[in-house]
Amino acid sequence: MNALFLAAAEEPQNPLLPHLDELVIGLIAFAIVFGFLAKKLLPNINKVLEQRREAIEGGIEEAEAAKIEAQSVLEQYKAQLAEARHEAARLRQEAQEQGTAIIQEMKAEGQRQREEIIAAGHAQIEADRKAAATALRQDVGKLATDLAGKLVGESLEDVARQSRTIDRFLDELEEKAEAAR
Amino acid sequence: MSADQTLAFDPSCHLFIEGCGFPAPGLHTFLYEPIATIGSFEFTKPMLLALLGSIAIVAFFWAAFAKPKLVPGKLQMVGEAGYDFVRRGIVYEIIGKKDGEKYVPFMVSLFFFVWIMNLWSIIPLAQFPVTSLIAFPAGLAAVVYVMWVSLTFRKHGFVGGWKNILGYDKSLGAILPLIMVLEFFSNLIIRPFTHAVRLFANMFAGHLLIVMFSLATWYLMNGLGFVYAGASFVMVIIMTAFELFIQAVQAYVFVLLASSYVQGALSEHH
Fold this sequence. Notes:
The complex is a heterodimer of chains A (181) and B (270). Chain A has three helices and no strands. Chain A has 181 residues and is mostly helical. Chain A has one domain. In chain A, 9% of the residues are buried. Chain B has one domain. Chain B is built from seven helices and two strands. At the A-B interface, helix 1 of A face strand 2, helix 1, helix 2, helix 4 and helix 5 of B. Chain A: It comes from Streptomyces lavendulocolor. Chain A: It is found in: Cell membrane. Chain A: Belongs to the ATPase B chain family.
């Protein structure tokens, strides 16, 4: 640095009067800055700032579009889900109705079968009873005549048969039993 | 300080030494012997600093903005922050986004130019605010002056331009002539003067204070004076920090005023 403080003895001029040489240099120095910044550097950065703004706005727009699409898809899903729920409810209802009908039917069928079985049982029992009664009547008749024969000492078999006494007696017994029942 | 420097004061002079006194700084502090002389043109240290400052500004913005990227690097980010500060913080605020865009490059250049010229004040070895020489602020204020006056007439025509500058308003009635005379002086004569002097005086006074405390620190370094020298040195540090703040504020104010003058020229009613 060659800068020198001047000796105080030298007469300084009014500090408010601009020195022409300094004025010129000052304007040139400012012109250098203004020239470079205004003609090249600031337009440069403006372009990039604009691009950046667009990039950011583009990104925002893209995000917006994606959001709208997601919204529509979600709505679609929701609609489908509601439909499915509805369908399921309908099916359940139907199944319930069908189930009730089937149960009803089964009950009726069961009732019918039970009645059939009971009726068949009754018929069978009746038939068995009749067969048993017939067999019993013969046996009891025979036994009674045998016993009476033994007691009397002669065969009463043929007579008894012919006279039909035993049958009458047994019928009487039967009637009594019926009446007692 | 290198050996080939001659100082305006005697470095061997200290407190309590007979036959010499405190070398108070004054107007001579702002005068430099030319580094080179071409005819009657004298090239001085402040001029060198002005040109170096310009180159520094261009170099910085060149490094930051010559090949700008969508995703900025550190330097570009700093440059963008500075650019945005002036663009949004001053021009858009004062002139408006639509009208102001045209003046952004000028105001950005103006801000960084003034700020760096101020900043030289505390850069080691430079240590001189270029703007403390009236010629530099005056040149810039003149450019701003020519700009807003020509803008006024281009925007409003000859009569409308004068009405704008003189604050013509019929509703003022009888005092209108008085107002117009006042506005004439205030806008066309005082305004460029205060615009330049505000910056000049701030930097002039700041530099004077730093030099004064620096010289005092040196001068007081003798015997008991060392105590006072310490206090004086603390003041040098404080004033340097304070100047750093004032430099930025003055650059901001200078550009703020320039913007407001342009805004006044563009507006319909003054």
